[in-house]
Design brief:
CATH architecture: Orthogonal Bundle
Distance between the termini: 15 Å
Number of strands: 0
Radius of gyration: 21 Å
Helix content: over 70%
CATH topology: Proton glutamate symport protein
Largest sheet: none
Shape: globular
CATH class: Mainly Alpha
Number of helices: 18
Structural class: mainly alpha
Amino acid sequence: MKLKLYHKIIIGLVAGFFAGILLGDKAEYLKPIGDIFIRCLRLIVVPLILSTLVTGVTSAGDPKKIGSLGIKTVTYFIVTTFFAVVIGLVVANGFQPGAGLALGEVSEIARPDKVSPMQMIVNMVPLNPAEALAKGNVLQIIIFALLFGGALSLAGDKGKPVADFFAALAEVMFKLSDIVIRMAPYGVFALIAWTSGKFGLAILMPMGKLIVATLIASTLHVLIVYTGAVKFLARVSPIHYFKKVFEPALVGLSTCSAAAAFPFTMRAQKQLGVPERVSGFTLPMALTINMDGTALYQAVGAVFVANIYGVDLTIAQQATIVMTAVLASIGTASIPGGGLIMLTLVLESVGLPLEGIAIVAGIDRILDMFRTTTNIFGDNSSGLVVAALEKDLDREIASTPLSDMEIEEV
């Protein structure tokens, strides 16, 4: 029997974990294989985002339709992110992940340059689109693609050749994605082997409460918020949803990058019955704006740091954490470790020592697995919900079990 791709990924993940435990530090030699896999995925992400978002805007046609998509999409992102932070705080306050952890000597960490909220908004607009593309600045690429796609729509027939070019480029990038993701089982094996070889089982014990608290909060958010949205807003079976999103979630778990899982997410959207007009619009935005897992982690991380320094957070401080985490998660680059940078802003907002980040940094890779997986479940739910609200969801495909679908093997 021919194994499906997600079966191969599971095998690679499990085999990689045990290989890392057995090899220990020698698992470092496997890491280049995983690095090549991530590089290949990043190779296609920028042109894929640009082409799909421009195509999504132009295919929407009516500017009012584009506005409707944008309002529904951004509203969904903000609401789910708010719930993510609240759930993170509730779990962390109940779990007290840093309680009982002896504070040892911590290393000094570099403090990032402070940027005002207004300057953050200004920085969203690219000075040079080519520079934004070269640097992979996802937020600036999204702003440019939205403006460019809108201008193409307003140009009418004169803009059609350019719109057709981006539509063709999107198709080419989808084909290239199919080629690249054949490497997934091998890349996952190497990355998981390196992670388990580096951290082993010993590191999990002293930081176990933080890891468990983050895992519990992430799981609750997925099961309560996303399941509720899929069932009651999209009116789709959560079972079908989870089965179809399982593959990109596995890739995100191993790579710690929602951007790396983007091609898999696009394929999952097709299996969920979401038209490209919607997924091409919502998913690129989701990579930067829909960071529920990251926001949730910031709440748990802030309580953890407060615990280890013996600080009791007031209601006002926790409200500040909610606001800061929601805003900070918007614009977080979807790359490994991005949440650690955003945690700096959250800690500063309530006056907690930044040295606490140095303690968390040692296991950030493990925590990043949960954050990214949560983000990917959120990305897929956003496309599904928005498509349903726009009455563009193909319900026949959405209600078809994954096992009954004819899926092109890659």
